Each structure stands twice: as structure tokens, then as C-alpha cells.
Amino acid sequence: MKRINIALDGPVGAGKSTVADAVAEKLGILHLDTGAMYRALGVYLLDQGVDPDDRKAAEAAAAQVAIRVSHEKDGQHTYVEEEDVTGRIRTEAVSRAASRIATYPGVRRAMVAKQQALAAEHDMLVDGRDIGTRVLPDATLKIYLTASDEVRAQRRFLQMQEKGETPVFEEVLEDLRKRDYQDMHRETDPLMIADGAIVVDTSHMTFEESVDEIVRMARREYGV
């Protein structure tokens, strides 16, 4: 049986990680959240007092710092130099740092190499911004998960409230649009719909409907 490698791309706030977790569990395969790897590097740089705008420092760190993921009972854990940073990678400061450093060619090369090595060893669903175009260009099943700007911003707004934050919706929406522009216009591996990818717009879908739709595609494609 051929290796199951599913590429899942999409913009910020599309729900890639949570949907991918549920899909992978139903299919009995691993889920690799590549965004967590960039966030982990963001945590490291911020801890070291390095400005994420310092491209040379970010690229040097990406090449040298040990970043790995581990699939444990409660999901993917992300480590930097053997420190578990899973609980720290979802803050807004880290999100902004990750979005910035992800534009640097040297950072992306280092991360892509790690991601491709993992996908070669395991059946897995890999989610991110350049999976179908760069990390797994030969994946049999490629999906572009998206939703309207307003729906994605509302999801992030509610997530921030659940964490005890006091966001302003208009600011969340503006930040999301800025990050979309940055992701889609970066010099290296910009976010785009990969050739052959199936677009799944979840604007008017429930979480369960989104998961079931992708599971159906995978089972039809791979016979799992």
C-alpha cells in the first residue's frame, strides 16, 4: 500500500490544526502541524532576546537549533533543545514572530527538510502554508482549507476570549488580513492553492462537517 501523505494548506484561522487532528485520528494516522515548528523557533528567538526581524539570526537559529515533534497521547508536542514548548506556542506574540520568520528562505529550507524527512517515515496528514506546493508536492491528496476573512477572524476572536484575553474584533480582522498578505506575498514558498488541490470552504460548515468531508476524500483516495 502506498504511503498516506495528505497535504493540507490554508490561511491563518482556517482551523487547519484542529481539523487535521480530528481527521488524522479518524484515519488512524499521524498529524504533523508544521506551523508549530515555526512557532517553536519563534519562542526560541524571543527567549534569546532576538528580534524576529533579524533575518540572519533567525536563519542561523533554524539551521542550528534542535526542533522536533513528538506524538503523545494528548497530541503533538513540540520541543526546542529538548524543552517542551507546546504550551507556549499559541500566544499572539509568538504567532506574529512565527509569521515573520516564516518569510525567510533559510528558515523555510531548514524546516521543509525536517518535515519531508518525517513524512517519508510515517503515514501522516501534514498541515501548513506550503505543504502541497513545497513539502509534499507529490501528495496524492491535496486540500486547501479556507473560510471568509470575517469567519476566520471571528474564530480567532473567540479563541482569544477563551484564553482570558480581551480582543477587539476589528483589530483581529485587520491583523488576519495583514498576515494573509504576508503569507501570500513572501518571496519564498508563498501561500497558494497547489496544483490539483481541492478547495474546502468551511464558512458555512460545522467543525464535524469539515472533518467528515476530508475523511471521505481520504478514504476514497487511499482506501482506508
Rg, Cα atoms, Å: 17 Å
Q: If you average the pLDDT, what whole number results?
A: 92
User: Could you tell me the strand content as a percent range?
Assistant: 15-25%
SSE topology string: EHEHHEEEHHEHEHHEH
The CATH superfamily of the largest domain is: P-loop containing nucleotide triphosphate hydrolases
The rough form would be described as globular
Instruction: Specify the number of helices.
Output: 9
Low-pLDDT runs: none
Q: Specify the biggest β-sheet.
A: 5 strands, parallel
Provide an overview of this structure.
Helix 1 packs across helix 9 (about 205-220). The protein has helices at about 15-25, 35-45, 55-65, 90-100, 105-120, 130-135, 150-160, 170-185, 205-220, and strands spanning about 5-10, 30-35, 65-70, 75-80, 85, 125-130, 140-145, 200. With about 220 residues, the protein is of the alpha/beta class. The chain has two domains: about 1-30 and about 125-224, 3-Layer(aba) Sandwich (Rossmann fold); about 35-120, Rossmann fold. The mean pLDDT is about 90. A hairpin with a 2-residue loop joins strand 4 and strand 5 (about 85). It has nine helices and eight strands.
From the structure above, extract its key features.
224 residues, Rossmann fold, 2 domains, five-stranded parallel sheet, 8 strands, 51% helix
Which helices and strands, and how do they pair?
Elements: E1 5-9, H1 16-27, E2 30-33, H2 34-47, H3 55-64, E3 67-72, E4 75-80, E5 83-84, H4 92-101, H5 105-121, E6 124-128, H6 131-135, E7 141-146, H7 149-162, H8 169-185, E8 198-201, H9 207-222
Parallel strand pairs: 1-6, 1-7, 2-6, 7-8
Antiparallel strand pairs: 3-4, 4-5
Helix pairs in contact: 1-9, 2-4, 3-5, 7-8
